[in-house]
Each structure stands twice: as structure tokens, then as C-alpha cells.
Predict the structure.
Amino acid sequence: MSTQQPWAMVTGASSGLGREFAVQLAQQGYNLVLTARRQSVLDELATELRNSSTIQVAVIPADLTSADQVQQLLSELERRQINIELLISNAGMGHFGPFAEQTTEQIQEMLRLNIEAPTLLLHQLAQKMHAAGRGQILQVSSYAGLQPIPRYSVYSAAKSYAIALIQALRYEYRKSPVKLAVLAPGFMQTGFHEAAGHEHTRWMKMLSLTPASVVTAGLAGLKKGQWLITPGWWYKINNVVARFLPRSLGSAISAAVVKVKHKRNTTEQTNPSQRQAA
Ligand SMILES: NC(=O)c1ccc[n+]([C@@H]2O[C@H](COP(=O)([O-])OP(=O)(O)OC[C@H]3O[C@@H](n4cnc5c(N)ncnc54)[C@H](OP(=O)(O)O)[C@@H]3O)[C@@H](O)[C@H]2O)c1
């Protein structure tokens, strides 16, 4: 075990992209703080990483939709005297469905996890990194933050916030040793869509990126000093082309890509009067 190795913290490390960040950062020699809600899954990952490397791994479970738990996470870092040099602010989720049909609780969950928690973490950790004279922050947004997706409206808007925040902070921190970047991946086949209540459509599968390629691109982009990282050639091209299209067309295309086509069942095919007669 080395105490000289830098510490990175990955939020949402129990699954998908966050898990892959943890694996690749362990390979790069970072000591790791893993956080998410499911402690048993984090403990298993921590054991796996400790067995395959010489790094230290700390598991600090937290539900980041609670501002109190965000604060407890930060206090726990202080208590354990862990100075985070790299924050991967990755935990995130979206609920799929028409805005009008979403519950207040679903909307609050998306706003708290995708906006409030990363902002509070970034606010406190960036100051500590600045005082320490070094640090890096990679905020995970989404391609949906660049091209908002109907039925993921609140999620897309929350991910746009992350892009706007990092763009503005890059200027504020231009003379600071703290480096910031935002990662805007396209579709990935992780636990995200199951949590969102959404099937992977054929288009989404076709456009899917692997978490491994997204993490590699994200860490390389951060190292190169890029501020907005959009992995995958299709998404890069689309990002350029989209600038010349009306925004309404962009959202119409996104709506079609995520549209789930179900075979109609017998009840749906008959109209109400037919059903009464049957
Ligand atoms: N999958 C995609 O197509 C896609 C595309 C673009 C961007 N993204 C973004 O990529 C990031 C990672 O998502 P993913 O695709 O890897 O999905 P995922 O497999 O569902 O992982 C989400 C992670 O967030 C954690 N999380 C969820 N709610 C939480 C809460 N209340 N408090 C703390 N942690 C919480 C989950 O852990 P617990 O359940 O253990 O808490 C899990 O570790 C997200 O920010 C997402 O918006 C995903």
C-alpha cells in the first residue's frame, strides 16, 4: 500500500461508467474513494481492486439526492484525512416519460442527483484542490445535455446545466492549478436505462458506446486539457452538424431514436365499442 499515490473519488462507482472509471484509475495507480448507495456492491468492487493492485480503496456509501449525505461524505473525507486530487462526478440518473406524467418525487430526484449534488461536491472540493495547489475534476454530463431528448426533458436540462457550469468555471479557474472538464457521452448499455424505465431501442443499441471506451476518452481528454469531451466519431460529427440544423429538428430526431415501438396487443387493436360488443 502506498500513501504517496494520489486519491481519486468516483461517485456512482457501483455500476456502469463509474465502475469502469474505478477499474481504469486503479490501473493508473490512484487510491480510490468509491461512493454510491449500494454498499455491498462497492465492497465487492473494493476487494477486487485491492486484490489486483497495490492501491488503497475506501468505500463511503451515500445517497447523493440528500444534501445532508453529500455533506456527510465530505466530512468523512476530512475525518479520514483523504485529500481528493481527482473527482469523477459521475453519479446520475434520469426518468424516461412525458414531463406531464412525471411525479414531483421523480423530478426532485433528477434535480438533486444531477444538479445539486455535483455542484456541492465541486464547490467544496475545487476550493480544497485550489488551496492544495493541484486537482482535477471530470464532471459526467451526457450528449443529451447538448441535444435535449424529448421524454428525457428534465434529465437533458440537468445535463445541460453541467456543461454550462463547467464552461463558466473553466474561465473562473483559468489561473488556478485546478483543471476542469465535462464528459458528454452518448448512449451506453449500462444500468441507466433500466433505472430510467426505458428499453434500449434498435437505434440506441446501434449508437451505443462501451463504458471502457468512454472512460479512456474521458481521462485522455482531461489530461489533454479539453473542456468538453464527446467520445465516439458519430457523436463528434453529429455535434458539428447539429450546429447548422434547427434545434427543433435535433430534438425531433432524438425523440425518434428513443421511441419504443411496442406490438399492439389485441385489446389495444379493438376500439371501446368493439370491446363492449365482444
Ligand atoms: N448510459 C447512458 O446511456 C448514459 C449516456 C450519457 C451519460 N450517462 C451518464 O453517465 C453516468 C453514469 O451512468 P451509467 O450509465 O453508468 O448508469 P448506471 O449503471 O445506472 O450507474 C449509475 C450510478 O449512479 C449511482 N446512483 C444512482 N442514484 C444515486 C443516488 N441517489 N445517490 C448516489 N449514487 C446514485 C448508482 O449507484 P447506486 O444505485 O448503488 O446508488 C450507479 O453507481 C450518469 O451521470 C449518466 O447520466 C449515461
